[in-house]
Records
---
Amino acid sequence: MATVRELLAEGLGRLRDSGSETARLDAELLLAHALDTERTAILAHPEAPVGDGAAERYRAGLERREAGEPVAYIRGVKEFHGLAFGVDPRAMIPRPETERLVDLAEAAIAERLLAAPRPASGPKLRVVDVGAGSGAVVIAVAAALRRRGMLDEVELLATDVSAEAISLATENAVGHAMADAIRFREVDLLPEWEVRRWDVVLANLPYVRSDAIASLPRATTFEPRLALDGGPDGLAVIRRLLDHLPDVLEPDGVALLEIGGDQEPEARALVGERLPGWSCALEHDLGGLPRVLVLRPPAAAA
Ligand SMILES: C[S@@+](CC[C@H](N)C(=O)[O-])C[C@H]1O[C@@H](n2cnc3c(N)ncnc32)[C@H](O)[C@@H]1O
């Protein structure tokens, strides 16, 4: 029977040869997954023998990873904002930089609710996540609000143009006991039947330039192109959302839109062109890159 140490060494070699830049971590995660345990548990017991069934599952995972598949799809799970989300090719794997969007959303919502609490009998604060994918953003925001005891004061909608993404997001909401707290809709950007405006609009829409997609890491070829492709300048979908904002955002509302770390100049120019008079600030992610556009209508900007 092979030991943990031996199997990790085998995985490290195979994944390095296949071009993985995170070969050691990948091997550890895949072995822990095959053993149905935590990565820290296997690292603590390098001489432990691994049964043949687990070794076989591990090698099957290595094979998929060698073919370029992301570890998160092989494990079927990704940690995001301290929560575990089911992931598979129905939706993009949530990225760590998007945790900034969650923090900003939580702060914007909490600020509004502290200033004007919503009694159970009255209208709730309305929040929409456009392009929800796996549901990671809206569910992480909901979880943060639940911890603050504010979830009942908020109406949450999550949209995606992909039916497959909506099905995964709905499963994740059920997994986090949020099925009653969040509505999901398959729709292009926002539902036309919504008559009331939104207090907070969140979005991490596709923002990769079409001609840059081929140069992304191989793992991204396993993710839906619809989740990545932002058109010729990367801002085609975001541009369409900007054009909707004057009609859908409350005059004192805020829109928080994730962009690519190299898109600040183009994004600012776009806001100036499509939303004259609006305030436009940029928040940075933990890596120091400009990441989230913070947009407010002229009335609130003044
Ligand atoms: C970059 S992924 C982000 C997913 C998720 N919000 C996250 O942060 O992990 C973009 C998502 O936007 C969706 N999308 C693309 N075009 C859309 C549109 N016109 N209306 C609604 N959703 C759209 C894609 O299907 C995809 O799920």
Note: The pocket of S-adenosylmethionine is lined by residues 91-92, 94, 98, 130-134, 136-137, 159-162, 165, 188-189, 204-206, 226-227, 237 (CB under 6 Å).
---
Amino acid sequence: MGRLQDKVAIITGGTSGMGRDTAYVFAEEGAKVVITGRNEARAKEVVENIESNGGEALYVIADMTNRDELKQIVDKTVEAFGTVDILFNNAGILSTTPTMQIELDEWDAAMQVNVTSALTLTKLVAPLMKEKGNGIIINTGSIAGTSARWGPVGYCTSKHAMSGLTKALARELGPEIRVNAILPGAIATAMLDSAGGEDAMEPMKQMSPLKRIGRGREIGTVALFLATDDSSFITGQLIRVDGGVDV
Ligand SMILES: NC(=O)c1ccc[n+]([C@@H]2O[C@H](COP(=O)([O-])OP(=O)(O)OC[C@H]3O[C@@H](n4cnc5c(N)ncnc54)[C@H](OP(=O)(O)O)[C@@H]3O)[C@@H](O)[C@H]2O)c1
């Protein structure tokens, strides 16, 4: 029996990178997984992979900036699987433009995708979780969510906001719901590729005691820990998964 047997998990940004790898980890542990994103071909592929391994999954195409589509994610999950046990607010975008050049459209998009969508989805699932007496919310922050060293203004500010959101939600939604954030360092995903790939991360690798960048599955296994009773006394925490780059 899997460690998430019959639990229902929504994973935003499940069409790529660490969200996709977490979907595979959760499904292997028996969860019914709902992945979201905008790219239907990739969404289909993830669901097919899970199903071909005997798991249960569905996708909902939704833009994190569209409140009606966010509501659809929760509605379709409840329609298909009856409830929501785990919400992984993982979708995110980079914003790399420095302060004097950044346009407010870029700033607003970073805030909406990286933070506001997490609040909106939390507000939609929290009543269900409260009513049944338990629930898990995991947010994807970043090491740019505790230091300005790792991200320019839009990304850094949105990820600091995600850190604050995590703590505020943990305080407000307990005792039924535990809320934690994973703060990844450099992880090999499409986002990392768009920032120059592994080569561009060479200085970061050298700063890390582990001398490498991380893999999406190494985020998935930490998300699994946070989603199970193995972490039953942990809430409001920002868990760095970064190869020790700042130690
Ligand atoms: N990779 C790293 O080194 C790193 C480090 C620290 C933190 N993070 C964070 O980790 C999370 C996952 O990123 P990743 O590295 O796995 O990147 P990724 O491979 O680019 O995946 C990003 C995911 O977010 C979804 N997404 C982006 N914008 C969206 C929008 N407007 N509406 C709906 N979905 C949207 C994408 O789905 P579609 O393309 O299908 O829309 C995709 O599934 C993000 O929050 C990111 O900030 C990454």
Note: The chain has one domain: 8-241.
